[in-house]
Fold this sequence. Notes:
Blueprint: E1 12-14, H1 15-22, H2 27-30, H3 46-58, E2 70-72, E3 86-90, E4 107-111, E5 120-122, H4 123-132, H5 165-179, H6 190-200, H7 216-227
Antiparallel strand pairs: 1-5, 2-4, 3-4
Helix pairs in contact: 1-3, 5-6, 5-7, 6-7
Amino acid sequence: xxxxEVWKLYDSFTVVEAALVIVEADPSIYQKDILTLETFxxxxxxxxxxDALKNAIIDGKLKAVIRLDSRTECRGEYRNYANAxxxxxxxxxxxxxMSEGTYEENDVFLKKEPNWRExxxxxxxxxxxLFRKNIKPRFFFEQQTNNSPDSPPSYLDKNHPxxxxxxxxxxxxxxxxxxxxKYLNNGKTAKTNIANWLxxxxxxxxxxKEDGEINADAIKNQIAKVANWQTDGGAPKTPGG
Length: 241
């Protein structure tokens, strides 16, 4: 087993770790000082992948548990003023409003930029984001080990240790809706057609709750959103139009 293989046991990654495994670099070697190294000392493509992950998180296109560095109020002349890269917040913290300001006492100052060594992404969300970008690094999308033409890709193999039912559902829904003529120019958006297909096949992908109700929220707001290619929100074409 290669050292990087151990990271396949992880269910979540920091943003730094995620960028490293995507470019097939072992986080055990690099993550401690990767951000202090010169560009030429970092693994190839790390900077671009790292920037893409950060931008996706900031833009709300990739889910993450964001963690911010903080400090308590300063003692002295500048005790109640935030630096340019900080928010000033009263204690106790309330995250509903992250607007800037100063307060009379008990201030906490939060860095505006997340701590990328501590901010984490779940494996499932990361894989879905990569799939949506049509980027399939070997760490997450292993090649088929069976030479049979009928053998499914690893990410569709239910016996694979990292099988994701939601990812498989997104792939199968996309394949079905793009191949079946009844979904073409039927007056519905791609997302609606995908959601309808998923609803009809909910039982195949664990999308039925314990009470027998279909998990419509997961279908509409998670899986269909990943498989949807009409992200501009344009009106669907009408039949014959």
